[in-house]
Amino acid sequence: MTVITNHLPTEELQALDAAHHMHPFTANGGLAQKGARVITRASGVTLTDSEGHEILDAMAGLWCVNIGYGRDELAEVAARQMRELPYYNTFFQTTHVPAIALAAKLAELAPGDLNNVFFAGSGSEANDTNIRMVRHYWAMKGKPTKSILISRKNAYHGSSVGSGSLGGMSGMHAQGGLPIPDIHHINQPNWWAEGGDHDPEEFGLARAQELEQAILELGEDRVAAFIAEPVQGAGGVIVPPASYWPEIQRICDKYEILLIADEVICGFGRTGNWFGSETMGIRPDIMTIAKGLSSGYAPIGGSIVSDEIAGVIAQDEFNHGYTYSGHPVAAAVALENLRIIEEEKVVEHVRDVAGPYLKEKWEALSDHPLVGEAKIVGMMGSIALTPNKETRAAFAAEAGTVGFICRERCFANNLVMRHVGDRMIISPPLVITCEEIDTLIARATKSLDECYAELKDQGLL
Ligand code: PMP
Fold it and tell me: What is the average pLDDT across 274-289?
């Protein structure tokens, strides 16, 4: 049998991939025709593919490689932990040092009384935990009818049956029988696409007040929690108007609705603070974490839970958990990642150096004829492509057609930018330097210019 390594020709790797590998969120038939791009190694913010291209990864993988690629310290820690204790579980009244140390570190980093961690293997699993935990919490408090979780259209909370139901992606709900019962979705604070003639702040307030209307319609005695990303990521990096979050917090407080902040993208420095909740000025009862927790070097997620909720849950057995909850190798890697973020002042780098530098350059992209609004918080940004900035019009072509063309131009120019419909988004490694930001912006601008020319050629403008 052929040994499959980096040294095989790209076409051979692509053929084997097409024959046996089912890719997530992909039309695999189409991909098989085209051939997947084969990434062979990475260092810092740069990926290398099997053809030797050096690509600036402005998405940090899937929003996760916060400290950049190729950090030996994490490899060393993983190897050490694998030799010492590669696996043990945290069920049946046992524990181990990596899980203890990571939980204690997260309690120290998290705001307020978020001092308790339930580990999972991913963000999806952690949000599944949250669904069960908040419902069980209210049942334990003698209010079992409080079982509805309110979320938002176009939110992303994961891909499992539970977390996919929490999310508000209609394409996901259309497949596989989602959502599960007792999940309710309100509208998102996406002013560019849905704000009409309102000014952004008035619109933000109105969208937040939909939470209050939903609570009143569903009944306060039926609603367990509200979940949201501090800044919507996969929905297109939708930065809410400043009026939005304070109003949400007011409503959650008024009706005693638990607030779950899904920090899977925003956590661990991405918004210029340790957590997006701090940037947005909110006080969650639970935070979902994953991705930047280990900078993607090992699969790990979790829920950081308030003393109040953890105290109630502790009174009985919570019939929930995963084989890999608190996996020792993943926990050790996460801990080392947090040490690096802290000691190398990565959050400060985002807040004081790379963030302000990128913000200035990113916002200037709105001068491009194809770009409407340009939004950015810390190291997550988006631009809305439009044929008419004044009217915020959508393209006549099917939504996403232009975004896809732009993304393909980016790929050709060795830049990974993602498109969500006709919004282009970035979420680079947090350690990106100002010089690398210049390269990112230069490649993005070139790609926008080429996209603009192609749209004119094809009569799409
Ligand atoms: N929540 C948010 C906000 C996310 O962005 C994601 C992943 N993109 C998830 C949850 C799900 O995480 P995972 O893919 O690790 O299950």
Answer: 98
Helix (H, G, I), strand (E, B) or coil at 298: coil
Task: Judge if the beta carbon of residue 237 lies within 6 A of ligand 1.
Answer: no
Q: Are 122 and 299 in contact (CB under 8 A)?
A: yes
ipTM of the complex, rounded to two decimals: 0.99
Q: What is the pLDDT of residues 125-165, one digit of tens each?
A: 999 999 999 999 999 999 999 999 999 999 999 999 999 99
Task: Return the ligand 1 atom nearest residue 125 CA.
Answer: 16
Q: How far is the CA of 130 from the centre of ligand 1 (A)?
A: 13
CATH ID of 73-343, from 3.40.640.10, 2.40.50.140, 3.90.1170.50, 3.30.830.10: 3.40.640.10
**Distance of alpha carbon 310 from alpha carbon 20, whole angstroms:** 43
Instruction: Establish whether domains 37-67+345-457 and 73-343 are of one fold.
Output: no
CA of 33 to the centre of ligand 1 (A): 29
Task: Give the pair of three-digit tokens for residue 341.
Answer: 């973020």
Distance 387 CA to ligand 1 centre (A): 31
Mutate to test the pocket of ligand 1, among 131, 149, 264, 280 (most ligand atoms within 8 A of CB): 264
Q: What is the pTM of this model?
A: 0.98
Q: Which residue has the tokens 């010492």?
A: 84
CB of 322 within 6 A of ligand 1: the answer is no
Domains of the chain by residue range? 37-67+345-457, 73-343
Whole-Å CA distances, 152 to 194, 210, 219, 244, 447: 14, 10, 18, 13, 32
* CATH H-level, domain 37-67+345-457: superfamily: Aspartate Aminotransferase, domain 1 (3.90.1150.10)
3 pLDDT band, cuts 50/70/90, is confident
